[in-house]
Predict the 3D structure of the following.
Amino acid sequence: MTSTKTTTKTTTKIAFIGAGSVVFTQGLLTDLFAFPDLRDLHIALHDIDAERLETALGAARHIADRADATPYVTVTAHPDRREALAGADFVINIVQVGMGEATRTDFDVPARFGVRQTIGDTLGVGGIFRALRTFPVLKALGADIAELCPEAWLLNYTNPMAMNVQYLTAATGLTRVVGLCHSVYWTLRDLSDLLKVPYEEVTYRAAGVNHQAWLLRFEHDGRDLYPKLDELIASDPQLRRRVRVDMYRRLGYYPTETSEHSAEYVPWYLHHDSEIERLRLPVGAYLGIVDENVALYEKTREALGAGAPLDVEATMEYAPQIIHSITTGTPRTVYGNVPNHGLIDNLPATGTVEVPCLVDASGVQPTRIGALPAQCAALNRTYLSMNDLVVRAALEDDPRSIRQAAMADPATAAALPVERIWELCDAMVEAHGDLLQPSLRATGLL
């Protein structure tokens, strides 16, 4: 199958890697099939779990049928990843290495050491080891893409987003890699609702790093909306009991991720019982989400077995929008996570940054931002420094860099003395075992 760049190709092939994440796959397909000018699609689903792959296939065909897309959509399932990738124009990566069991390990082991986490998928000990067990899969995926579909766009949803994109580009040499997250979009939707301003009429710009970008511009009809937000916060004590609002009041720019996420990237909140109570932080919250995802998967599987309809709604995710824009030439702006390469002056060039990106038939084109406000860049640099150490550990087969990354992580450093940080990393290495590349399985390094 030839590339989208030729004039002879009539079918757009989209490979879903980790399609057994059935709920997420359903939402993305619902969005894709909603575009009336996206036709002749080949959806190639891949997962290493045979039951989940079969469920994903059934769900995809159900959604295509419900959207009247069956005449122009082909859906196939592939236990072999290379079969799914062959000739693909777009690759959507949604793998979760180790699934819920590994996520529980990410919470349970640090908790025994006294380290609190709320989500554990971006920074901190949970983010470090989520990345390290994902990197070997990403390296193999990148090699397959380079061989089987070198012109494809790799659209990554797997967290930790910034670490994964940095590793992918460094380890594989792929250049058509964009990390996608809905945090900027939903932050602006929620703020617009809070201020009773139509989202469609709001002008905004955000930039920074994934899960810690900053709302730099926020306007309606040419008027700055920040003063209106300030008035609302001043009048509502409950709003002031949220981490992201607390950070905004102190830093001057609103962060583009939830309070649960934001609390983990700084040293000020999770280590203090008083702050957990003041800001209503749900320690271990993500484990409940893991259980909900399993329940939703089982519900989907049971509904398909009974021939019942699936309750799936549009997600407004960026991947379907990117595919539509590149395929049809329709221009739009999305937020993407890409190598910095001069996009943000006061952040490291090797880091992954989140910026607005123009998308059209030419592909994904990131926007140069310039310099961030100094206080925002200071936090982002700490975040990216930790990322760099984790990526270096994998690239250079250096297990000491894992411990140094944990030492550099603000929330971990606030919770533990340095000796305990190293002991925690040893315990995590032992707990995750064969999911890590062999060179990183060493313990007792001091």
Remarks:
- The two ends are 53 Å apart (CA to CA).
